[in-house]
Aspartyl-phosphate phosphatase Spo0E family protein (Paenibacillus gyeongsangnamensis), 54 residues
Amino acid sequence: MEEVDWKQNLELMQHKLYLLVEETGSFIDPKVVELSQRIDRLIVTIQKKRLEDK
């Protein structure tokens, strides 16, 4: 997967997270926490890829 795809996926996931927080009204809802952790892992993947490409 290319970095552009990762960034698009990240933006989509962030939007879903926003909507999920609005829907649940909670930052500690298990679904919110799970999606947030997936976003964190994707960010780490993007950062590692950038370091490898240097």
Residues 9 and 15 are 10 Å apart (CA to CA). Helices lie at 3-24, 30-52. The chain has one domain: 3-52.
